[in-house]
């Protein structure tokens, strides 16, 4: 009875109330009902909880509950930090490897990349002529300009242009104009060496481009696009 009363102090109010009721019933019922109705089968839930022994899982420093664990605190924390840090490094490295492999699997293969560039021999294009190549499924204009064309385009006042761009900002070597042969209006292929400005003329709706590929007249809103290109030597250009 003493132990029952003492334990009441640490139970929740609900259990305390239940326990109180059970205790009253036990003692009053014993008097009223006699020995045959004694509540021998009534047990409180907490009495049959078996608490497992976790000693095997505890660190040796904290097995003895009567000893202070404060002294071993630093070394135990260091071990925890070490394990956490190592796990984090391994996880990050694994994640980086997975992401890299996933992303690289989506990039273009070597044969596709090779097709994305075009190498053009400039010696095959006479001065004053424009040649058309197919690059990435689009027409590519390579124009070998004359000195007259270069001086004319360089002298254009860009404030008069719809898409203001100086000629020197559209070429690497003034002799060569390299642009996509796609009209910026609705995508037709312009005709070279035609139109009011002697550059390109789009017959679909009448857009006129100059010898720098800049829009000068007609509905097209922008200049012909200049792709990325470089000259590995004086006679070669690589586009793409
Ligand atoms: S598509 Fe070239 S002018 Fe319309």
From TrEMBL:
Q: Where in the cell is it found?
A: Membrane; Mitochondrion inner membrane
Q: Which residues cross the membrane?
A: none
Q: Does the keyword Transmembrane helix apply?
A: yes
Which principal EC class is assigned to this enzyme?
translocase
- Asked if Kinase is a keyword of the record, the answer is no
Topology relative to the lipid bilayer, per the entry, is: Single-pass membrane protein
Q: Which co-factor is required?
A: [2Fe-2S] cluster
GO-annotated cellular components: mitochondrial inner membrane
Task: State how the cofactor is bound.
Answer: Binds 1 [2Fe-2S] cluster per subunit.
Signal sequence coordinates:
none
Q: Which family does it belong to?
A: Belongs to the Rieske iron-sulfur protein family.
User: Any miscellaneous information on file?
Assistant: The Rieske protein is a high potential 2Fe-2S protein.
Specify the protein name. Cytochrome b-c1 complex subunit Rieske, mitochondrial
The organism encoding this protein is Betta splendens (Siamese fighting fish)
Tell me the lineage of the source organism.
Answer: Eukaryota, Metazoa, Chordata, Craniata, Vertebrata
Underlying gene: LOC114858006
């Amino acid at each position: 009875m003493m132990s029952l009363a003492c334990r009441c102090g640490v139970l929740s109010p609900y259990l305390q109330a239940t326990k109180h009721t059970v205790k009253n019933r036990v003692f009053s019922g014993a008097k009223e009902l006699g020995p045959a109705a004694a509540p021998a089968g009534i047990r409180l839930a907490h009495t049959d909880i078996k608490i497992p022994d976790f000693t095997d899982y505890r660190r040796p420093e904290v097995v003895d509950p009567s000893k202070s664990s404060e002294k071993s605190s630093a070394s135990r924390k260091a071990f925890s930090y070490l394990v956490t840090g190592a796990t984090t490094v391994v996880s990050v490295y694994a994640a980086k490897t997975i992401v890299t492999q996933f992303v690289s699997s989506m990039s273009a293969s070597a044969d596709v990349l090779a097709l994305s560039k075009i190498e053009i021999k400039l010696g095959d294009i006479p001065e004053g002529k424009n040649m058309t190549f197919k690059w990435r499924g689009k027409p590519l204009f390579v124009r070998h300009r004359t000195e007259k064309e270069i001086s004319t385009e360089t002298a254009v006042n860009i404030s008069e242009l719809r898409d203001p761009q100086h000629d020197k900002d559209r070429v690497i070597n003034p002799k060569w104009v390299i642009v996509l042969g796609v009209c910026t209006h609705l995508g037709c292929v312009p005709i070279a060496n035609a139109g009011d400005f002697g550059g390109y003329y789009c017959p679909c709706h009448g857009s006129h481009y100059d010898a720098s590929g800049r829009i000068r007249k007609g509905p097209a809103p922008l200049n012909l696009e200049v792709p990325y290109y470089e000259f590995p030597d004086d006679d070669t250009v690589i586009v793409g």
